[in-house]
Amino acid sequence: MSNSPSPKPLAAPARRAPTGAPVYAPARRVLVVDDEPGIRLLLSRLLSRLGYLVDVAEDGYDAWGSLHKNRYGALIVDLRMPGSSGRELYVHVQAFDPSLAQRTLFITGDVVGHQSREFVASTGNPVLEKPFDLAELQRNLESLFDSRGREKAAPPEHHTHLPSG
């Protein structure tokens, strides 16, 4: 375990959809969360060319705000970021929208760390090590979108927001 101070927690997760209710996610909209500007730019350009709608966030706090303004079909999240880590963001997304948590692709330069390996294994989600192969990224992302099953795109009025406070 690390002796470093715990990062400031994100705001409390929003209410979950009732059990059995359909989870709505727009087709091919992705949120890329990475603290490295070059990675955000590369992924944004690449994924846009492949037909995805791409939003970017520099950390978990930024991403959390985007998640309450927009609905996403998948997330690409760096595990290690200053401030709010990818792991912390994932835990909040899991409480907020378990289906979206299942459609999270992790990217990292640190899968050799014991804690990172254990965490990623516990999620069952794919992980790509930096530098990653762009074709492999595309295959993994397509697989996440294919796993959406019966989910349908929602009109804007179906957005969920965090309660104030």
Report on this model:
The longest helix is centred in the N-terminal third of the chain and has 13 residues, at 37-49. The termini are far apart. The protein has helices spanning 37-49, 60-67, 86-96, 98-102, 114-123, 134-146, and strands at residues 29-33, 53-57, 74-78, 104-108, 127-129. The chain has six helices and five strands. It is of the alpha/beta class and 165 residues long. It has a five-stranded parallel sheet, sandwiched between helices. It has a single domain (29-150), classed as Response regulator (Rossmann fold).
> What Rg do the Cα atoms give?
15 Å
Instruction: Give the CATH class.
Output: Alpha Beta
Characterize the quaternary organization of these chains: single chain
Order of helices and strands: EHEHEHHEHEH
Spell out the CATH superfamily: Response regulator
Q: Helical element count?
A: 6
Number of strands: 5
| Low-confidence residue ranges | 1-8, 12-25, 149-165
Strand order of the largest sheet: 2-1-3-4-5
CATH arch. level architecture = 3-Layer(aba) Sandwich
- Residue fraction in strands: 5-15%
Helical residue percent?
Answer: 25-40%
Write the layout of secondary structure elements.
Blueprint: E1 29-33, H1 37-49, E2 53-57, H2 60-67, E3 74-78, H3 86-96, H4 98-102, E4 104-108, H5 114-123, E5 127-129, H6 134-146
Parallel strand pairs: 1-2, 1-3, 3-4, 4-5
